[in-house]
Amino acid sequence: MINKLIQRIIKLEAPIVVGLDPMLSYVPQHLLAQGYKEKGENLEGAAEAIWLYNKGIIDAIYDLVPAVKPQIAMYEQFGIEGLKAYTKTIDYAKQKGLIVIGDVKRGDIGSTSAAYATGHLGKVTIGDKDYRGFDEDFITVNPYLGSDGIIPFIDVCKQEKKGLFILVKTSNPSSGEFQDQLIKERPLYELVGEQVAKWGDLFMGDSYSYIGAVVGATYPEIGKELRKLMPKTFILVPGYGAQGGKAEDLKYYFDKDGLGAIINSSRGIIAAYKQPKYEAYKEEAYADASRQAVLDMKEDLKKAWVKN
Ligand SMILES: O=c1ccn([C@@H]2O[C@H](COP(=O)(O)O)[C@@H](O)[C@H]2O)c(=O)[nH]1
After folding, report:
1. Domain count, the chain
2. Which H or E element spans position 161?
3. I need a surface site. Which of 109, 160, 170, 210 has the fewest CB within 10 A?
4. Where in the numbering of this chain does the Orotidine 5'-phosphate decarboxylase domain appear (predicted)?
5. Which of 265, 208, 213 has the alpha carbon at shortest distance from 239?
């Protein structure tokens, strides 16, 4: 899957992943009305509206970007109905040829990680048949529990030819509280990055490992350092746009060929129609605004996606 992701990035000239982080407040009135009419003004109706909203965005952007990243928390707000919308979104995105990165940030003791890995990346056997749960192509994983919490995910990745993005340096303002702490004079994110590179050796693709890292766009100096420390690790970069990350700061997240990283934008794309820049787009044309926002992001990233 990492080879396919890289091929798609090259073909589309777009190292971009669209984050599908739907909030009810982003969903246009006509879709809310449709969801509530069909399923009731309740969790089911809200989840239906979220699904319709996502479908509109996927239809508008699937030919421009290689991947989408649904954030499971946004769906879990609506309980089981939300998870059904999460599953429908994944299935539809894959049907449209998109690679799906499930932002689920799982990680636990070994046996529990194995179950998470089965549910999100693998298959479960019931009777004499295999069934897939969520079936994302990649998921995000939290390394805080150490190797025995990560290896079960890597084992399933090897069986399924799927991948991970492991949190190394997150984009949020307080990420430094723990991640920047020095241990034997080295910041924790560096030790985690080094370990992610070692885990990556366990499952290499053609040029990059199936085991990638998450490094936020909001700490460009750290991004530069980690790129050097993890030369074969593909980097998922959240924090561009809504969190303040800028294209010109992202140059060193890429390798000398302009590869090795994919930049996420969620609110900046899916709620583009609410931004003053896209005010010409009315609510009904929210998906057209998202398409334009992707085109603008692609242009903007040319500032970063240059040969180093
Ligand atoms: O370090 C991290 C890890 C994950 N995220 C997730 O990415 C998106 C960002 O959304 P925007 O609207 O583009 O800010 C969201 O799903 C986060 O949970 C992150 O931001 N930083």
Report:
1. 1
2. none
3. 109
4. 15-281
5. 265
Q: In which residue are the tokens 């560096």 written?
A: 190
Range of the domain at 150: 2-19+63-80+94-301
Q: How far apart are CA 148 and CA 193, in angstroms?
A: 17
d(CA 180, CA 169): 9
Q: Does residue 229 lie in a domain region?
A: yes
How many helices and strands (H and E) does the chain possess?
Answer: 12, 12
Rounded-to-integer distance, Cα 131 and Cα 125, Å: 6
Strand 99-106 and strand 138-141: the pairing is: parallel
71 lines ligand 1 (CB under 6 A): yes
- Cα 236 to ligand 1 centre (Å): 10
Q: How many CB atoms within 10 Å of residue 259? A: 16
Residue 206: Cβ within 10 Å count: 8
Q: How far is the CA of 237 from the centre of ligand 1 (A)?
A: 9
Q: Which residues are catalytic?
A: 105
Residue type for 242, please? Answer: A
153-212, pLDDT tens digit by residue?
Answer: 999 999 999 999 999 999 999 999 999 999 999 999 999 999 999 999 999 999 999 999
Is residue 57 assigned to a domain?
Answer: no
SS3 call for 211: strand
242 lines ligand 1 (CB under 6 A): yes
Give the CATH number of the domain where residue 162 resides: 3.20.20.70
